[in-house]
Automatic annotation (TrEMBL):
<dbReference type="GO" id="GO:0008422">
    <property type="term" value="F:beta-glucosidase activity"/>
</dbReference>
<dbReference type="Pfam" id="PF00232">
    <property type="entry name" value="Glyco_hydro_1"/>
</dbReference>
<dbReference type="GO" id="GO:0016052">
    <property type="term" value="P:carbohydrate catabolic process"/>
</dbReference>
<comment type="similarity">
    <text>Belongs to the glycosyl hydrolase 1 family.</text>
</comment>
<dbReference type="InterPro" id="IPR001360">
    <property type="entry name" value="Glyco_hydro_1"/>
</dbReference>
<keyword id="KW-0326">Glycosidase</keyword>
<keyword id="KW-0378">Hydrolase</keyword>
<protein>
    <submittedName>
        <fullName>Beta-glucosidase</fullName>
    </submittedName>
</protein>
<dbReference type="InterPro" id="IPR017853">
    <property type="entry name" value="GH"/>
</dbReference>
<dbReference type="GO" id="GO:0005829">
    <property type="term" value="C:cytosol"/>
</dbReference>
Length: 433
């Protein structure tokens, strides 16, 4: 094992809704309670990280990791429009202080998919007003906590809405086939997007969803962050990011700011070059004008996607698949870093990379291969400044519920007892004190 140089972040990542528990003012919480919800189960107490963060950060630090990426939950900070909760700011102040007490660099994400329920009722992520609402929230957080942070991710996977729109369109086409074929195709579609989604269940529930959403959000089609996004909504997210960056720099000019993108290693097979090029333009290149002033880019990658003469291809016959139906392909990370670095000239931080598997030996193998690729990139002069594994602990994988095992730490769903897996110490071994 080759350790990284001192100052390189070797960390793990979480998102508030997936680990904290009882995020009752959020849009996701509301959707989880719908009679015909697309969620496999509600988030509930999640991993109770809200109350157990000290134990979790200590486990991370004791294993040798030196950085922790977590998200600050907007729905906690501003549970009602214009009403900020100082007690919740103090909670996150304690999380930051706990990191520092253990020699861990806190890296905060200000929006990781979940939004306040009130924001969605006011038009959500297709409404122009959201840009200013987000800027106001970011300004409040920075005024309170900004001096205690060095790195901020404004928005997690700003491109996820477009990816979901493409997947949903493909899924609907497949769903027009016979029921048995649709079920099979649906599983394939779910495995091509880097977030836990239940497209089959969404299709089945569509006839009920409109009325239930209208009752909760005041609209039959609420525009949450991971709704299918229009091109206009896509650019609105980037304007929200730019507004947030402006606010952060005005209040704390020394803080380094970026966003994160969900990026696949897009590989063209014979006849697939045009499809792969178009997909990369949509997934990454068209964002470049909006992120060129950022201090860093958060690279998030889990697998590769193959394209042939007819478009996207399934994983190769006999390929190892993860619990999420992704192809086990840790080499993808190095390929994506190199491709991104050709166009984005700021620092790069791997803000998510990981694998859903119950077999921790495969997680160890994945980490070792992925980090070898990162080290190859650094050796070639690419400015990669950190690696955050997804995830610190087994948690709530959105619509998939608790069935996915992404964690470096196991969590007993009954007792909340934490059990570090061997992979946690393996990852920590790469850090230089």
């Amino acid at each position: 094992m080759q350790k990284f140089e001192k100052g390189f972040f070797v960390g793990a990542a979480t998102a508030a809704h997936q680990v904290e528990g009882n995020n009752i003012h959020s849009d996701y919480w509301a959707q989880e309670q719908l009679p015909h919800t697309s969620f496999a189960e509600p988030s509930g107490i999640a991993c109770d990280h809200y109350n157990r963060y000290e134990e979790d950060i200590r486990l991370l630090a004791d294993a040798g990791l030196n950085a922790y990426r977590f998200s600050i939950e907007w729905a906690r900070i501003e549970p009602e429009e214009g009403k900020f909760d100082p007690a919740e700011i103090e909670h996150y102040r304690k999380v930051i202080a706990c990191c520092k007490a253990h020699g861990v660099e806190p890296v905060a994400t200000l929006l990781h998919f979940t939004s306040p329920k009130w924001l969605i009722a006011m038009g959500g992520w297709e409404a122009e007003s959201t840009v200013e609402y987000f800027k106001r929230y970011v300004s409040y957080v920075m005024e309170q906590l900004g001096s205690e942070l060095h790195y901020i991710c404004t928005i997690n996977e700003a491109n996820m809405g477009l990816q979901l729109a493409a997947i949903s369109k493909r899924f609907r086409l497949m769903a027009e086939q016979a029921a048995k074929a649709a079920a099979s195709a649906g599983k394939s579609a779910e495995g091509s997007v880097q977030v836990g989604m239940n497209f089959q269940k969404m299709m089945e529930n569509m006839k009920y969803a409109a009325a239930e959403n209208a009752a909760v959000f005041g609209t039959p089609q609420p525009k949450i962050f991971v709704s299918e996004r229009t091109p206009e909504g896509d650019l609105l997210v980037l304007r929200a990011h730019a507004a947030a960056r402006e606010a952060i720099k005005a209040i704390c000019p020394e803080v380094k700011v970026g966003l994160t993108l969900s990026l696949h290693d897009l590989q063209a097979q014979p006849g697939g070059a045009a499809f792969a090029a178009a997909a990369w333009e949509e997934e990454f290149t068209h964002y470049l004008p909006y992120i060129k002033e950022d201090d860093f880019l958060g690279v998030q990658n889990y697998t590769r996607t193959l394209y042939g003469a007819q478009g996207q291809l399934p994983a190769p016959q006999g390929a190892e698949l993860t619990q999420m139906d992704y192809e086990f392909y840790p080499q993808a990370l190095e390929n994506v870093i190199r491709k991104v670095a050709a166009d984005f000239k700021g620092d790069l931080i791997v803000t998510e990379n990981g694998i859903a598997t119950a077999d921790d030996t495969r997680r160890v193998a994945f980490i070792e291969a992925a980090l070898a690729g990162v080290q190859h990139c650094i050796a070639d002069g690419i400015p990669v400044k950190g690696y955050f594994h997804w995830s610190l602990m087994d948690n709530f994988e959105w619509q998939k519920g608790y069935a996915m095992n992404f964690g470096l730490i196991a969590v007993n769903r009954e007792t909340m007892e934490r059990t570090p897996k061997p992979s946690l110490a393996v990852l920590g071994g790469y850090a230089n004190a």
